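::Encoded backbone::
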Amino acid sequence: MAIKKGGFMKGKGEVLVISDGTGFSYGSYCLIGWYRGRLKKKVKAHCKVVFVLGEREGKRMILGVRVESSYGDERKMFLSWLRGQREKIGERVKYVGDGLYGKSIEILREAKRMGWEIYVKVREGIWQGVRAEERKEAMREWEEGMEIYRQRYKIEQVIGLLKRSYGEGCRERSEEMAKKAIMMRAVLWNMAVLMVSGFLLFRCLGLEGGLLIASFHA
């Protein structure tokens, strides 16, 4: 799901884009493992969700959501969102992702093609070093831009806020309805952000107007 930005991320300046995945449970249960006619484990079904957060001038908005079944690949989900972008997010984009996204050469190539600065964790493995040029370049940028990478906590804050506000699970019993409910939570969060931003702007304009009237009468 690509969420319309409504001009929130447009304009001059830089935009910080962060992606991360999480899970949301829903009504039904999955039965895992039967042994001699007895159930070994019963767990709540859940969806895999990838959120894409944007921040510009201190204002945050969820730019995109991808929801799949519990075994969805986060890298493919984010790559699908990335390739679906048809409008420029900002004048200068800094992308931050954890080590999982740093393992995808396709994500690194696509982000670089879009002109983004990439700050994803890339490390050498125990038995194998970093060979691909895209990953070598990303590793250098990650090491040099550690302060930017540390801002990854911002998307964790948003995900935590969503779960505290709406719950870590959905009451919907089917996967399709649960996916829609999760997407709606992101939409509601964006609406709340826009309402708060509009209220603060109204307060500022009202305060400035009051000062102007006071100075005029004085």
User: Anything to note?
Assistant: The chain has one domain: 14-217. Residues 14-217 form a domain with the Nucleotidyltransferase; domain 5 fold (CATH 3.30.420). Confidence is low (pLDDT under 50) at residues 199-218. Residues 84 and 194 are 24 Å apart (CA to CA).
